[in-house]
Amino acid sequence: MSASQVNRLAQGGRIDRSQTLRFAFDGKRFEGYGGDTLASALLANGVRLVGRSFKYHRPRGIFSAGSEEPNALVELRTGARREPNTRATVIELFDGLEATSQHRWPSLGFDVGAVNSLIGRFIPAGFYYKTFMWPSWHLFEGAIRRAAGLGRAATEEDPDRYERRSAHCDVLVVGAGAAGLSAAKAAAEAGAEVILVDEMPEPGGRLLRERGGTGEPADAAWAARTSAELAALDNVRILTRTTAFGYYDHNLVACVERVADHMPEPPPHLPRQRLWRIRAKRVILATGAIEQPLVFGNNDRPGVMLAGAVRAYVNQYGVLPGRRAVLFVNNDDAYRTALDLVDAGATVEAVIDVREAVLDRRLADQVRDRGIRILHRHAVVDARGGRLGVEAVEAMPLGGGTASRIDCDLLCVSGGWAPAVHLHSQSGGKIVWSDDLECFLPGEAKQDTASVGAAAGLTSLEACLADGQACGADAAASCNTGGRWHRPAPIVGGQGVPRAQPRLWEMPDPPNRHVKKFVDIQDDVTADDVRLAHREGYRSVEHLKRYTTLGMGTDQGKTSNLNGHALMAALRNEPISQVGTTTFRPPYTPVTLGVLGGRAVRDHLQPLRRTPMDSWHADAGATWVNAGLWRRPRYYGRQGETMRDACNREVIATRDRVGLCDVSTLGKIDIQGPDAAEFLNRVYTNGWKTLPVGRARYGLMLREDGIVKDDGTTSRLGENHYVMTTTTANAAEVLAWLEFHLQAVWPELRVKVTSVTDQWAAMAIAGPRSRDVLAKVVDVDVSNEALPFMGVTECRAAGVPARLFRISFSGELAYELNVPSDYGRHVWEACLEAGAAFEIVPYGLEALDTMRIEKGHVTGAELDGRTTAEDLGLGRMVSGKKPFIGKGLLDREGLVDPNRKRLVGLIPVDRKTPLRGGAQIVADPDAPPPVPMLGHVTSAAYSPKLGHPIALALLSGGAEREGQTLHVVDPVRGGTKVAVTVTSPVFFDPEGKRLHA
Q1: pLDDT, mean of residues 585-614
Q2: What is the pLDDT at residue 148?
Q3: What whole-number distance in Å separates Cα of residue 864 and Cα of residue 953?
């Protein structure tokens, strides 16, 4: 044993003493052993001060031994792998580990922020809501944001890899303690496919933290045998180092497996972490229970620890957290800690019990036989000490009397155990209060799930084993029957505070002085803060949480909610069952963003779709932009050109001569069947039954609530054959929407729909010379008489079968040519060759967007999920003669309000200052706040044909404001103010003469 490990026991524990591991904390070097956590190794080396509290910067030490830890939050590793807010109690020690304390400056021992503790009376809960409102919140915002938070995120790119996997099983068991192992074994022996997950490195739960050989029906050796038997079965998968953090609908449980977190860095063949999405027929929650603290003066000092955690450090890690201990308890279980401490060589000065008697007299006799005095009906009212921790406790009789000082360096507290009901709550199950156990228990389940063992409120090992076995067998049997699983609730019983002596939720102050009594140790929420919230009207537990930050830290109230909510119940003079508890939401413990993303990062963030002409665009030096899932050319820059230069050149060339644009990304949906026209009539606002073969029509779709969903053209190719185009981004969504209505709403319609987006390459030929170019490429007459505007025909293009549409998005004489995808580049190059004599240019998305803004055509910026047809100036397309999706809600009061924001155009008064999408429109930007927002800019561009900036906007009052001068303000991006004139949204060729040429 290293000489520096002053608190390491000479023998015992489940650590590997042959494996010495070196690590650093705040730059100081220490040693530990294989099997240690960072917390156990720090305690072994006599480190008591590990952090500072969130608000008052009070010194804090290790409090627990599990994922409920509120204090020991550290930064792990350095550089790109730096990880903040990691709980030292769950960090497996590895050689070379570097950890740093956080939320202190300049050092942990001397923290300037500790001055907050001296002025604590002036900064109670909610003080910032009242203090920083004048003269402006923004005056204080920077300093407050710098002071807030519990760590520093890494600023470099994460070098590690993460994975996601999905799995299915008959029975998922969460938790591999006594009840979980018993349930998994019973289910597996009944033939069920079983997955067992546990957040610890090895199965066993609290069995690993108790002394063996005590005559118990199960111990660590039993856990090892049982887990080995399960691992040998083909129908069982065991996932250790895996935390189930979220329980979602249809028995979907999300888990994080920490594959390589116990290593300095992952080897090349392993991910750092793996996200499991497990779908199970039955879920058994064997999540155990969490020991609760007691509320008394200065209960946050280093050296104040949960009694069960102290027992874990002694028995599992061979560490003695203190030499002279006092126990402050209200239940029998904590007496085991007194026995284990004495047998490990510590001195236990006293067991201070708020109750009149111990329920298990055998335990009390064993404690007294070791010379430990028991003070019944006494309470610790103050933990005395300094920066490095507790030095003594002040105890006094609950009935009144003289306070006494008891010297100690370790105070073990236990307010009983509360079931970990978080996953049960996330699943939609009810949480019910137990007067017998004075804690919340899992109630009626909403999904096919059951809580077992300590998670169900059982307190004896025998009961947990029996409950797990019965539940596992029942779950396996029910998998074959189908339907809901209605498992009978377990019989709840065991230790607890007798009903005649209800739990004391808050201890009295010491004589003649007031002390801070912390309810939430991580977030510095005191009992006084709870009382203040009650006085100021924040009496709901949900309001209490947000007003005081109770339960809002990384521990999510695991050791604070029960006490805080009970105190509020007492203040409201209502039973806790009526006051209730806050809703538990995922994640159960913090989850890294990397594992949620998995491999979907950088180029793998989403699948990249390339058009058939992609290789030509790359050869031409296109600058790319992502549109939906597609890579599209934004512009084709030439030497020395900026994006605006290139865009202006492409727009002018198209307006004056001819341009070619790749529009293959538009959604294309093939619609066939005898009822196809009727189907279109129902999904579009305008009529479709009269559309002749060989013609196209612009259509508008609404959602059921009357809001515009999408727009596009649909062409009739045959008697029962149509092809629909959609916006690029909405193609998949529209197809799914159409399929839903055919399958679920109108199954009687004889219609089939399928996506043909990838089957056709599409290109737009636009401009005054587009007909001349096209005449050289296709084998049909493209004159205005033969192919008028919105005409459709089949032809051959450069020898390839093709479809030709007389459609225009640019407002020019234009055509869209569709050819099979494999021939896309061939026909594209044929068009460029035919257009060379007319100085044809390819144009990208930037030029296309500029031209559509010039014509007032809408896209996703205007179809933002809030606009109606009338808002967009498309009210004439809404038929009053037929039913269609969304018609029934079009006349709602809010949708016909004349003050709704409607589409308009904007031109800067100075005709120079550019406008930007998202900027706000106001009448007077210099008026005293609040300044009413009249609307916002949706799309903006510089028009090279008009010679000035233009923009489309949604403006309250719409066209009625044409001619008015308003102002566009952009407070987020520099606070610019631009005077603008409201105009028609159609800036260029309003009569449409070029379109119909």
Answers
A1: 91
A2: 67
A3: 12
3-state secondary structure of 148: coil
675 touches 772 (CB < 8 A): no
Q: Is residue 486 part of a domain?
A: no
Residue 279, classified by CB atoms within 10 Å of its CB into exposed (0-12), middle (13-18) or buried (19+), is middle
Instruction: Report the DSSP pairing between strands 800-805 and 792-797.
Output: antiparallel
929-951 pLDDT, tens digit each: 889 999 999 999 999 999 999 99
pLDDT at position 214 over 60: no
Residue 491 lies in a domain: no
Q: How far is CA 555 from the centre of its chain?
A: 16
Q: How many domains does the chain have?
A: 6
Task: Give the CATH number for residue 919.
Answer: 2.40.30.110
**Do 378 and 363 sit in the same domain of this protein?**
yes
Query: Contact 274/165 with Cβ under 8 angstroms?
Result: yes
The pLDDT value given to residue 967: 97
> What is the enclosing helix (H) or strand (E) of 720?
none
Q: What is the pLDDT of residue 121?
A: 73
CATH assignment at residue 719: 3.30.1360.120
Residues 309 and 408 in one domain: yes
User: Beta strands 525-526 and 948-956: pairing type?
Assistant: unpaired
Are 836 and 697 in the same domain?
yes
- Rounded to the nearest angstrom, the gap between the alpha carbon of residue 366 and the centroid of all alpha carbons in its chain is 50
Q: Which positions ≥6 away from 361 have C-beta within 8 Å?
A: none
Mean per-residue pLDDT of the chain: 93
How many other C-beta atoms can be found within 10 angstroms of the C-beta atom of residue 373?
Answer: 12
Q: Is the pLDDT of residue 110 over 90?
A: no
126-134: long-range pairs with CB below 8 Å, 24+:
126/532, 126/533, 126/536, 126/538, 126/547, 126/548
258 and 396 housed in the same domain: no
Residue 489 has pLDDT above 60, yes or no: no
Strand pairing of 901-908 and 920-922?
Answer: unpaired
Q: Is 493 inside a domain boundary?
A: no
Residue with tokens 């004048």: 134
Give the pLDDT mean for 141-166.
83
Other CB atoms closer than 10 Å to residue 197's CB: what's the count?
A: 26
Taking the C-alpha atoms of residue 184 and residue 193, their distance in angstroms, rounded to an integer, is 10
Task: Show the tokens assigned to 260.
Answer: 């390589």
Structural domain for 960, as ranges? 896-997
Half-sphere exposure of 447 (CA within 13 A, CB side): 22
Q: Which amino acid is at 378?
A: H
Same domain, 119 and 184: no
Residue type, 387: R
- Residue after which a domain boundary falls, among 399, 415, 431: 415
Collapsing DSSP to helix, strand or coil, 59 comes out as strand
Residues 845 and 943 placed together within one structural domain of the fold? no
Model confidence at 500, pLDDT cuts 50, 70, 90, reads very low
Provide the pLDDT for residue 411. Answer: 98
Residue 96 forms part of a structural domain: yes
Higher pLDDT, 123 or 987: 987
3-state secondary structure of 975: coil
> What is the predicted pLDDT for the residue at 400?
83
Q: Do both 910 and 939 map to the same domain?
A: yes
User: Coil, strand or helix: which one is 811?
Assistant: coil
Which CATH number covers residue 395?
A: 3.50.50.60
- Residues 282 and 298 grouped into a single domain: no
* Torsion sign over Cα 113, 114, 120, 122: negative
- Which residue has 């062409």 as its token pair? 715
Do 814 and 857 touch, CB atoms closer than 8 A? no
Q: Domain with 57 in it: what CATH number?
A: 3.10.20.440
Task: Spell out a b/e string for 611-623, using b for 16 or more CB atoms within 10 Å of the CB, else e.
Answer: bbbbebbeeeebe
Question: Where does a domain end: 550, 570, 587?
Answer: 587
Q: What is the residue whose two structure tokens read 């045998």?
A: 225
**Length reported for the chain:** 997
pTM (predicted TM-score): 0.81
Q: What three-state secondary structure class fits 98?
A: strand
Nearest to 26 by CA among 72, 75, 63: 75
